[in-house]
Amino acid sequence: MRLLSLPTPLLAAISLPSLSDATHTSNWAVLVSTSRFWFNYRHMANTLSLYRTVKRLGVPDSQIILMLPDDMACNPRNTFSGSVFNDKSRELDLYDQKPDTPTQESAEGGDIATESETSETTPQIMPAGIEVDYRGNEVTVETFIRLLTDRWPASHPTSKRLLTNSQSNILIYMTGHGGDSFLKFQDAEEISSHDLADAFAQMHEKGRYNELLFMIDTCQANTMYESFYSPGVVGMGSSARDQSSYSHHADQDVGVAVIDRWTYYALEFLETRLNSTSADVRLGELFDFMTFDRVHSDAGIRADLLEGGEEAARNRRVLDFFGNVQGVDVEMGDGGRESLGDWRADLEALRRIGERTKREMGELNVTVGAGSKVSAREAGADRSVLPAMRVEGDVLDMAASTGGSGWLKKAIGGTSLLLLGAAWVAGSKMR
Amino acid sequence: MNALRQVFNDHPKAIVFAAGALLRLLTALLFPSLPDLLTLRPEISTPVNSFRRLKEGSFLYERGLDPYDGGIFHQAPLFLSLFSLMPDPSFWIGRLVSILLYTGLDVLSADCLYSIAESGAAHTTRSFQSPRKARTWKPLSVAAIYLFNPYTLLACLGRPTTVFATAFTLLSISHACQRQTVTAAFALAFAAYVSLHPLLLLPPVGLLCYDRLCMDMDGSHDSPPHDETSFAPTTNSTIAVDQRAFPKAIPFALRFAATFAIFLALLLGLSRLLLPSWKFIPSVYLTALTLPDLTPNPGLWWYFFIEMFDAFRSFFLGVFALHMLSYSVPFCLRFQKQPLTAVVLMMGIIAIFEPYANAGTAGAWLSALCLLSHLFELSSLHRYTFPAMATLLYSTFLGPAFHHLWIYAGSGNANFFYAITLVWSLALLIILTDTVYSALRDEWEAERPEGKGKDVGQI
């Protein structure tokens, strides 16, 4: 029973049979939306949906870089301010701060993002909150390329860096408006497929990834991965050259389209097939799920840069890129007993540290209450914060009335005026 | 209706003065927030005459502190003693009493204007009689213009202390017209004590006083207020005048200046007795010369000195002050035949070019200009009276609007307000120069009556 309450990824780690051939030790996700303005609501919803999925599958915020160029939740045109939805049923708020609670499985094709509960699995709790790393005007081509290649000044915070190494698998998801071999950033600039390919090449040279899954949902998306030349990169695009990618549906009350087709079906796949991580879902199934009937465009993949080509790519686990599954060696057997003994010794040491700390805390409380030295110090501190008025006697109390000296001043004033009047009269007598 | 007209005809002066006073009191009572609003307006309250700063200063004074220690209070010390006798202006009774006091000052000023107009000093002097004597307005009209001038009304409600300076300046001129040299000097000393610039009126007022003394000496009396005599210049008496009986000019000037200086010293000494130190002298008088406080006002100085580099500051301060100073004696020299014109024109120069100009002083000057009402025919025919009046109205309405846009709405900038102050000064200057033209032409036409109506051009 105790085992079942462990977090799901650990469950997955223990339950998956051939875990030892997972060659990566960390999972990172870079989720980029490149569009600004209210009518590009769906791109933000796409990205936030992927963010939610990736978090649900165990990747922590510290390993997710989320780039959102505009704020839909607090947009003045948002009727439902503070909320971003990816479905017209509005059952799931992507921008919600509350941790997820599992809800009932609803009709097929409806709420793709709600979690459905099956009898074998425990409810998955998604950690609450959205952590946006790059927002607004920070989402630029330069920032993106710097992020990938880690070329920052020393002052750049670590939370905004892609701190991957050669054992990291990276999922890069990009959505927005694109064209033949380019992707538009914020209506102001473009990144070309060659720039992206060169960035990936730099990453490979610096040993910044183990394997990279590049997903892109724009018009003519497949053209973006055609220029890649670094090994270990798998590309998935939503539409071929001269084809547009379409939005799935619009919400009449939000007023704009809320999700794109390709992302919608990707999410449907991930939510329905991957909610129980005992499922050994492969990338090939994801590829095959994106049919023309569903996506209304020719979704494509590029897998020739992976060792073993398309076959190896299709065989990769989805969780290799989407979840935070790590290769863990569990020591068993004789070594296990020793390790258990070590573990026990560690626990004992921790207990002793805890008791010592508690003792010290208790002493502190006692001394604060009683000791005269301490109280004198406290009283001195108290004295120093008293108003200066009570310490020095000669500071005037300005709020009070003038008192006796005021009458004197009035008398002096009146006398001086009378004196002037007398001088005036005297002067008028003279000629 | 007839009864009312009868009453008015019997006691015209009392009616007009009462109406003026009542107007101020009623406005203060009907719009209770208006006085405090006006004390905030930069057009009326400047750093050297603001009523709020006076309240601040008297607060500190009553508690035994030197109000001149901080850089806030730049007004004469006797105001502290005067206002300490009055109830606190924060309450309605104090506000009412202060407005009563200022209403009294306004009535006093109007009365002085009445007596100046009545004395005929504008058109009849020792050596000159204006051919347009018959066109002078009634003295009551001049007083009424002062009382019902919106600028002076707003100044009365806003209560800047320069109203004292204006009142005492007019008092000084009026006493000078009545040949009372000592009180004229005293009043001018008080005006200079309040605000530095009436010091520049010393030469013209001295000249006026001397002129009136001489007129008195030669046995002639004041000309009747509304003389129906012909246009031809006539001597006031047919008896030959013994000019040796005239007071000597230089000793008179020295006596006048000495009286002025003695009274000024008396005032300063009395102030020193009230205060713990002499610090009030740099605070009150050097402020106008060194301009430490550059709060925007309708004057021309603040904008310049905001953007002035420190190295040039003293030079330009000197230039500006010298400019204002440089009109005093030349006006006296040129207008020695009509000294009251010199006085009024110098008042205008001060109202336009003083560092902390305000609408109250300018309004008082415009009213005083009506003393030279016999010249209006000339300026309205030959000069730019209508454009000047229109510009004056324009800047009066746009000035507060642009100030509001600049400071409060944030949609304008300093240039808006400065432009309006330039326009305001331009309007006043046009009126001033037109008056200079009219006075000079009038003098010329007294000698050459055939030149009347002809255009004057440069050869």
Automatic annotation (TrEMBL), chain A:
InterPro entries, per database record = GPI_transamidase, Peptidase_C13
Tell me, what is an example of a GO biological process annotation in this record?
A: attachment of GPI anchor to protein
Gene Ontology molecular function terms on file: GPI-anchor transamidase activity
Signal peptide stretch: 1-22
Q: Region Disordered: start and end of each range? A: 94-126
Composition-biased stretches (Polar residues): 115-124
Q: Name one Pfam family in it.
A: Peptidase_C13
A single Gene Ontology CC term: GPI-anchor transamidase complex
Extract the Gene3D superfamilies matched here: 3.40.50.1460
- Associated pathway: Glycolipid biosynthesis; glycosylphosphatidylinositol-anchor biosynthesis
What are the record keywords, sorted?
Answer: GPI-anchor biosynthesis, Signal
Family to which the UniProt record says this protein belongs: Belongs to the peptidase C13 family.
Question: Under what name is this protein listed?
Answer: Glycosylphosphatidylinositol anchor biosynthesis
Q: Which organism is it from?
A: Meristemomyces frigidus
UniProtKB/TrEMBL annotation, chain B:
- This protein's source sits in the domain of life called Eukaryota
Q: Which InterPro entries match?
A: PIG-U
Instruction: State the compartments where it is located.
Output: Endoplasmic reticulum membrane
Which spans are transmembrane here? 12-31, 137-161, 181-202, 252-275, 300-327, 339-356, 391-410, 416-440
Can you list the GO cellular component terms from the UniProt entry?
A: GPI-anchor transamidase complex
Could you confirm whether the keyword Lipid biosynthesis appears in this record?
no
**Which membrane topology describes this protein?**
Multi-pass membrane protein
Q: In which pathway does it act?
A: Glycolipid biosynthesis; glycosylphosphatidylinositol-anchor biosynthesis
What is an annotated GO biological process for this record, any one?
GPI anchor biosynthetic process
Keywords in alphabetical order: Endoplasmic reticulum, GPI-anchor biosynthesis, Membrane, Transmembrane, Transmembrane helix
Matching PANTHER family:
GPI TRANSAMIDASE COMPONENT PIG-U, PHOSPHATIDYLINOSITOL GLYCAN ANCHOR BIOSYNTHESIS CLASS U PROTEIN
Family, per the entry? Belongs to the PIGU family.
What is the protein's given name? GPI transamidase subunit PIG-U
**From which organism does this entry originate?**
Meristemomyces frigidus
